[in-house]
Amino acid sequence: QEQPVESGGGLVQVGGSLRLSCVASGRTLSSYMGWFRQAPGKEREFVAAISWPARSTYYADSVKGRFTIARDNAMNTMYLQMNSLKPEDTAVYYCNAVRGNTNYALHDAWGQGTQVTVSS
């Protein structure tokens, strides 16, 4: 199964912003889509998810109020707007379908992700 492609990461200073994109090539986005991240030496963790067509969203407590997830189904693209970035947000960010209304990824395979580095 072709994996979505993440992009938009980079190096940013504390308090800065980035907008990540996830493009599903060759297939449509799943009803529930989410962002996950993995910091060095840590397990991958849930960040945010969004449903379709209701566009219901939910977030990890660590990013609530700072990150905003959105999707454009016509473009087969999902976004993560990240504001007020902190050093602890440094990680590789991935997108994946989500199991129903949960924090768990649906697919075992992951894309290459996009690196976000927040410098203090």
Secondary structure elements and their pairing?
Blueprint lengths: L4 E3 L2 E4 L4 E6 L8 E7 L6 E7 L5 E3 L7 E6 L4 E6 L8 E7 L16 E6 L1
Parallel strand pairs: 2-10
Antiparallel strand pairs: 1-3, 3-8, 4-5, 4-9, 5-6, 7-8, 9-10
Report on this model:
The protein has 120 residues and is an all-beta fold. It has no helices and ten strands. It has strands at residues 5-7, 10-13, 18-23, 32-38, 45-51, 57-59, 67-72, 77-82, 91-97, 114-119. The strands form two sheets. It has a six-stranded mixed β-sheet with strand order 2-10-9-4-5-6, with no helix packed on it. Strands 1-3-8-7 form a four-stranded antiparallel β-sheet, with no helix packed on it. β7 and β8 form a beta hairpin.
Task: Briefly characterize the structure.
With 120 residues, the protein is mainly beta. The chain is built from no helices and ten strands.
The structural class is mainly beta
Which residues form runs of ≥5 with pLDDT under 50?
Answer: none
Average pLDDT figure: 94
Helix residue percentage: under 10%
| Major sheet size, sense and barrel closure | 6 strands, mixed
Classify the beta-strand content into a percent band.
over 45%
What is the approximate shape? Answer: globular
Notable traits:
six-stranded mixed sheet, four-stranded antiparallel sheet
